[in-house]
Amino acid sequence: MDESETGLRARLVDVGVELVTREGVQALTLREIARRAGVSHGAPRRYFPTHLELLSAIARRGFGELAERARVATVDDATAPPREQLATLADVYLRFALDNRGMYELMFRHDLLESGHLGLRDTSLPLFGRLVELVALARPDVDARLVAGALWANLHGIAQLWGWGSLQLATGADDFVPLLRSALYAHLGAEA
Question: What distance in Å separates the CA atoms of residue 1 and residue 19, rounded to the nearest whole number?
């Protein structure tokens, strides 16, 4: 691919990122992305043979941003106890989800993505791997992958329900941090 083709490919993804950020997953049609990128509706197929591949490239950007936020937040936290590191990682995850609702939805809609293409799994799995590592350090007596999966599902539920306003209504909370602490307690037990 020459530089102009690489530029158009990147522009299509940039337009998709902007579109999902402003209008949500439902707005991510090939035709609309092409229109906003200023190319014919068939042009994206030269770079992304399927709609799923374009969506996957857009989601990859979201995973990259989430990973970078997690890296930045946890650099200073590397010597903290595993539970504190988990709390930091979970807080970053929830804030990303709430600040980027359209992208967040796309990132975890594996029914819309081809995660084996474009290195999407390589971008998405390390964060879960870090979650597993920290759970294993905090709770060496459990199957860390299962507990990390349950914790992740709990965080995902908090993000969704908070974003919809349901948890505020049900709990009277005005901040998700107490819910995050409760989730950590539920999956990790009391602090030592």
Answer: 25
Per-residue HEC secondary structure of 60-126 comes to HHHHHHHHHHHHHHHHCCCCCCHHHHHHHHHHHHHHHHHHCHHHHHHHCCCCCCCCCCCCHHHHHHH
CA Rg, the chain, in Å? 19
CA 183 to chain centre: 19
Centroid of chain to Cα 136: 22
**Tens of pLDDT along 108-164?**
887 777 656 556 677 778 889 999 999 999 999 999 999 999 999 999 999 999 999
Q: Residue 85 has which token pair?
A: 């590191």
Contact 191, 83 (CB under 8 A): yes
Tokens describing residue 3: 């530089």
Q: What is the dihedral of CA 106, 112, 114, 118, to 10 degrees?
A: -40
**pTM given for the model:** 0.88
29, 52, 59: which is closest to 41 by C-alpha? 29
